[in-house]
Design brief:
It is built from one helix and 14 strands, in the order αββββββββββββββ. It is mainly beta. The structure holds fe (ii) ion.
């Protein structure tokens, strides 16, 4: 299998837009400021540190982060970790940080972000889990990934794959891109809406990217009300339980096997979280 842009027609080129980032950041007045310089985002530049005014909405129909193909190199059951770097890792150090917002530009906590990428030499680890890991956004909706700059491989420009999933919501599969890459101009999958801001930081790089998921949030008047809680279906799975790899549960009449140890959280029921549970 190959992951060639020539075999998957990508979206037509779009002008670079930072409105998602800017509008989302303006509304997220509780988000801490990012230290240091670099490319200025709205969240970096609140005048005098004063809270920024809320905007009524960040969704005009095309704002959520666009989806992209998964490609052939995804593997479920990635480790829970924010750093993909080990003592033997080679490559240019890279951190990618940012926030995940819903459609009302409010941060989303507990969003599962599952990253995978090529190593510095352009190879994916299909036998193990090198350069694969998942994590959850914190209470402010923030995430940080510690890795290296993804290597180039034939047919593609430089990119990082990610799946983003808010609790109980569908998975968004997409890819993040690096600015200033010559192959951005020839990769049909490349989408400037998925460009990270990247700046130098010592011998490495620091990237930022904010996701906007198609998740309704109050008080956007155009959003439907949040789904009311529903009674859990029958089964042995229970929120608050600490499960170990190999544990088995039932949920709504279906058996699931735990792929890795975790604490069960409402919204992460087994049918919704292929990273943690598999049928069987
Ligand atoms: Fe890839």
């Amino acid at each position: 299998m190959t992951e060639s842009s020539s075999s998957e027609a990508g979206p037509p080129g779009r002008p670079i837009s930072r409105k998602n980032l800017l509008r989302a950041a303006v509304a997220a007045s509780t988000v801490p400021l990012i230290a240091g310089g670099g490319i200025a985002l709205a969240r970096d530049t609140g005048a005098g540190g004063a809270p920024l005014a809320l905007t009524p909405a960040c969704d005009d129909g095309d704002d959520p982060t666009p989806a992209q193909m998964e490609g052939p190199y995804f593997k479920p059951n990635s480790p829970l970790r924010t750093s993909l770097v080990t003592s033997g890792t080679s490559g240019t150090p890279l951190t990618v940080s940012g926030y995940v917002f819903g459609r009302a530009c409010k941060p989303l906590s507990g969003v599962l972000l599952d990253f995978w990428q090529a190593d510095a030499g352009g190879a994916y680890d299909m036998s193990g889990f090198a350069f694969r890991g998942h994590q959850f956004t914190d209470a402010t909706g923030a995430f940080t990934l510690t890795t290296v700059v993804a290597g180039l491989y034939p047919g593609r420009t430089r990119h990082i794959h990610v799946k983003a999933q808010a609790p109980g919501r569908p998975v968004l599969t997409t890819q993040l891109y690096f600015p200033g890459e010559p192959r951005n101009a020839t990769d049909a999958l490349y989408d400037p809406a998925l460009l990270m801001n990247v700046r130098g930081a010592g011998s490495g790089r620091q990237g930022t990217f904010d996701f906007v998921l198609d998740v309704a949030q109050q008080p956007d008047p155009t959003d439907p009300p949040t789904d009311p809680p529903t009674d859990p279906p029958g089964g042995t799975w229970a929120a608050g339980t600490s499960y170990r790899a190999g544990d088995r549960v039932t949920y709504d009449g279906v058996s699931f096997r735990c792929l890795q140890a975790h604490s069960a959280i409402a919204g992460w029921e087994p049918p919704l979280v292929p990273a943690l549970w598999e049928r069987g």
